[in-house]
Write a structure and sequence with these properties.
The protein is an alpha/beta fold. The protein is 32% helix and 23% strand. It contains 24 helices and 30 strands. The strands form seven sheets. Strands 11-12-10-13-14-9-15 form a seven-stranded parallel β-sheet, sandwiched between helices. Strands 16-26-25-17-24-23 form a six-stranded parallel β-sheet, sandwiched between helices. The structure holds adenosine-5'-diphosphate and zinc ion (2 copies).
């Protein structure tokens, strides 16, 4: 035994189900676990990570040596283990760990130097150095004596970049990513529930605990995060805050910086590669003390971790849709557990998964049941929209008029872009459908086109019915574009802003609009999901949700939960300022039990009843669910593959249902089917699937389909 030479086991980002063994670089010892290395792979070279030292499984004389050790021990063994666990649990190749752990710049072979930071400041040495004989350096000092300034400004002032580089090298200057921040503001006095929540987080500072902060919209959850974060910073600990979308970063970063007086670093896919690398390095060397990021930030290296926060923990954007299909919230909980630190999951509308974990005693519930400060929850009203035809609902019009006239702003949510969801022939009943999907094409009037929102198919609007030639085409239903038109006509005295992917070409547009809305002049905002999420708009006094009736009858067992979340989130946009708010829910089914239940306006009660139903029906989160999905251009191929897979995966502990058609059976020209794999225990289900992962690849029918496993699937 002991005489076998050790090899380094290396993962490389390729979709093969195992790591590979390599010898140490010639004349060197084995690089430690977590090292970033360059290895020969097939005909090329690849960047990989050393995950283990092991007696090689193949004859060692056939092993190749590592070409180069790029960064020894770059990733901590603990973080590496978390990423590998993720790949196993979510049924991805181990090489995906490289993609999870390293930003793009570090996945490439050539070293990559992050661009210089944009601000320069004097160091202590720079302030006191004798610069009598270096007049240009003295000029730099003069320019920076009052504090940091943008490098660009100095250059425009005529200072050469060479001088700056030399002073930086000599330790007279330091680079910063922004000018110094103003002294932190104290912030409001916390109410009793907030104080209790902060105390609970701090009490857990030396151990793992998962705290589910269920606070109604505007109850001051963010204030709780900030207060706990401040205490962690004072103890020199790093704080990682995850948010579901890039759009919410700017708002949060401003708040963190003004409250904590420390710069917040940002990590998400909207940044350049250099910016991502810079943040990664700052997390790694500890100079980043507060980091705000989207789900991929859950794998950032932290040297002195103190607290993880997952804001809007119920949000489906935390689930990755490709590669390792991990759930950012769940991985964050796993990470906090391994680090032995507290984690806060915050939401006004917690997921049933988290509520279930709380019942099971795994998470601790902290409730904020009142709005913070003087704000109150809006009054709720359900309006029967039956038989109202295509125009605006008269009750909605009256309510909007009333709020505008008293100086309020109005927010209307509709989860459909475009002018009308259906274009239909009045003569023969033809409707414009996508030929590649089981879906109607949406009519976009301003773009004069029909668009499929599922596969992106696009065509010009036909002038007449392609079936019977009739020119009378009817637009059925209203998307955001039509609502915008209708509001413009009905309320010509105020601005109407549409917020959706068509009208907001970039983040910049949206931020600018939000800033102008915050100035408080009466206006109407109409839009999709973009509007529903966490934006603080204190001038909004009326919020309305239109036409969610589809969700009441959806085949997706999660539809009622999502409906409840979106309704409560939109309602929560109203009345966040001084004035009382009002919320309107328009439905053609006011007597539907989900609607009457929601109308009580108490999300936790609503969610608990849904959870009881899920448990009774043996659905997640009471059981674990994975989907094996397959799709192909031929309708028989996915079914054949899934039947073979069902045979392979059969087990006493796992219930296998299907092959079943996906809810949208045809999309983008593909026929889509799935196998439901259910078990009482998540770990056991995942382990079972892991054992058969290679077997699935080897099934004869697998070559005729595109397939993947989706553990803890959210979409059906
Ligand atoms: P949430 O994150 O729950 O939506 P925020 O923390 O954003 O709530 O708080 C909503 C508003 O109330 C913010 O403007 C915040 O500054 C204010 N606020 C929070 N806590 C208090 C408090 N204890 N007293 C007064 N105002 C508060
Ligand atoms: Zn026709
Ligand atoms: Zn389509």
């Amino acid at each position: 035994m002991g005489s076998a030479p050790l090899a380094a086991r290396v993962v490389v980002p390729v979709p093969l189900p195992r790591p590979f063994d390599y010898l140490p670089p010639s004349g060197q010892t084995l690089p430690p676990v977590g090292s970033r290395v360059l290895v020969p792979f097939g005909k090329r070279e690849c960047v990989g990570l050393v995950v283990d030292h092991q007696a090689p499984t193949h004859a060692s004389d056939r092993l190749k040596p590592i070409s180069q050790v790029l960064d020894p021990a770059l990733v901590s063994p603990q973080l590496l283990e978390l990423a590998l666990w993720c790949c196993r649990y979510y049924g991805a190749a181990p090489g995906e760990a490289v993609n999870l752990l390293l930003p793009g710049a570090l996945r490439r072979i050539r070293g990559f130097r992050p661009p210089p930071l944009p601000f320069l400041a004097l160091t202590e040495a720079g302030r006191s150095a004798g610069l009598e004989r270096a007049p240009r350096q003295a000029e730099v000092r003069e320019s920076l004596i009052d504090g940091a300034r943008p490098r660009q400004e100095l250059i425009e002032q005529g200072i050469g970049s060479e001088v700056l580089r030399r002073m930086h090298q000599a330790g007279l200057l330091q680079e910063m990513d922004r000018a110094e921040l103003p002294a932190p503001e104290p912030g409001p006095t916390l109410n009793a529930q907030q104080r209790h929540a902060v105390a609970a987080v701090l009490a857990a500072r030396h151990r793992f605990e998962c705290l589910l902060l269920a606070g109604i919209t505007g109850s001051g959850k963010t204030e709780v995060y900030l207060r706990a974060a401040r205490r962690m910073l004072a103890r020199d600990r790093q704080v990682l805050i995850l948010i579901p979308e890039i759009g919410l970063t700017a708002q949060l970063v401003r708040r963190i910086e003004s409250r904590l007086g420390a710069p917040a670093r940002v990590y998400h896919s909207g940044l350049s590669e250099g910016e991502r690398l810079a943040c990664w390095r700052a997390a790694h060397d500890g100079s980043a003390r507060v980091i705000v990021g989207t789900r991929s930030a859950v794998f950032l290296p932290l040297v002195r971790p103190g607290l993880i926060v997952v804001d809007e923990e119920h949000d489906g954007s935390y689930k990755q849709a490709e590669g390792a299909r991990y759930h950012g919230r769940d991985v964050a909980v796993m990470r906090a557990r391994r680090l032995g630190i507290p984690i806060v999951l915050g939401s006004a509308t917690p997921s049933l998964e988290s509520l279930h974990n709380e019942y099971q005693g795994r998470y601790r519930l902290l409730e904020l049941s009142e709005r913070a400060g003087t704000a109150r929850l809006p009054r709720w009203r359900v309006t029967d929209a039956r038989g109202r035809g295509g125009g605006l609902d008269p009750e909605l019009v009256t309510a909007i008029r009333r709020h505008l006239d008293t100086g309020g702003q109005v927010l209307v949510y509709r989860n459909r872009r475009g002018y009308a969801p259906v274009l239909m022939c009045a003569e023969c009943g033809w409707s414009a459908d996508c030929h590649r999907c089981d879906a109607h094409m949406t009519w976009h009037q301003s773009a004069a086109s029909l668009q499929c929102h599922h596969c992106g198919h696009y065509q010009r609007t036909p002038p007449r019915c392609p079936e019977c030639g009739s020119p009378e085409l009817l637009a059925l239903g209203a998307g955001t574009e039509r609502l915008e038109d209708q509001f413009r006509q009905a309320f010509s005295d105020v601005p109407v802003h549409r917020v959706d992917r068509d009208s907001m070409s970039g983040r910049h547009d949206f931020d600018e609009l939000l800033a102008s809305v915050r100035e408080g002049q009466p206006c109407i905002l109409v839009g999709t999901q973009m509007l529903a999420k966490g934006h603080h708009l204190p001038g909004v006094t009326l919020a309305a949700v239109l036409d969610v009736d589809q969700a009441l009858f959806s085949a997706d067992f999660r539809a009622p939960e999502r409906l409840g979340q979106v309704v409560c989130q939109v309602a929560g946009r109203a009345g966040r300022g001084e004035r009382e708010g009002e919320f309107l829910l328009l439905t053609r089914h006011p007597e539907h039990p989900l609607v009457t239940d929601l109308a009580r306006g108490h999300y936790l009660g609503f969610a608990r009843r849904l959870l009881d139903e899920r448990c009774a029906a043996q659905l997640p989160p009471a059981t674990a669910l994975a989907l094996l999905r397959a799709e192909a251009h031929q309708v028989d191929a996915p079914r054949a593959f899934l039947k073979q897979a069902a045979g392979l995966l059969r087990s006493a502990h796992i219930e296998i249902i299907g092959p079943l058609p996906a809810i949208m059976t045809r999309r983008g020209g593909y026929w889509r089917f799935q196998l439901w794999l259910q078990a009482d225990d998540r770990a056991r289900l995942s382990a079972h699937l892991g054992r058969h992962y290679e077997g699935l690849h080897e099934l004869p029918a697998s070559r005729q389909v595109r397939w993947h496993l989706d553990m803890d699937a959210l979409e059906l």
